[in-house]
Amino acid sequence: MISGAHMIVYSTDAEGDRAFFRDVLGFSSVDAGQGWLIFALPPAEIAVHPAEENGKHEIYLMCDYVADTVQTLKKHKVNCEPVSDQGWGLLTHLTLPGGGQLGLYQPRHPVAHQ
User: Fold this and answer.
1) Both ends of the chain: CA-CA distance in Å?
2) Is the pLDDT of residue 114 over 80?
3) pLDDT tens per residue across span 34-69
4) CB 104 within 8 A of CB 60
5) What is the mean pLDDT of the chain?
6) Which residue from 32, 2, 25 is spatially nearest to 73, judged by alpha carbons?
């Protein structure tokens, strides 16, 4: 029934953020035309959290070792917030070239993908 998921990151610097996903994170992509890149993602999962309002969604990238990943990102001059222990995982936020942020964490919870 469902064959995949498509996420959208809105950005004031789409070209810079596309270069980040391509060059820094190393995500492969297809060109949908006129340089409009659509990136392949690693295995993904989705969780539904209770909230006071509908319509808020968040994107988090996961990694095996957040400290190592943060060090690699810093070599590419990517700003990362200090890592915090959330119980369910070790969390940071990285800043995209366009100024937006993505969460990045090392999960301590079971993951849905293998």
Assistant:
1) 21
2) no
3) 889 999 999 999 999 999 999 988 999 999 999 999
4) yes
5) 94
6) 25
Residues 74, 83 contacting (CB under 8 angstroms)? no
Give the separation between CA 52 and CA 31, rounded to whole angstroms. 38
Which domains does the chain show, CATH number per domain?
14-107 (3.10.180.10)
What long-range pairs does 61-67 form, CB within 8 A, spacing at least 24? 61/25, 61/102, 61/103, 61/104, 61/105, 62/104, 62/105, 62/106, 62/107, 62/111, 63/104, 63/105, 63/106, 64/106, 65/106, 66/90, 66/91, 66/92, 66/104, 66/105, 66/106
The reported pTM is 0.89
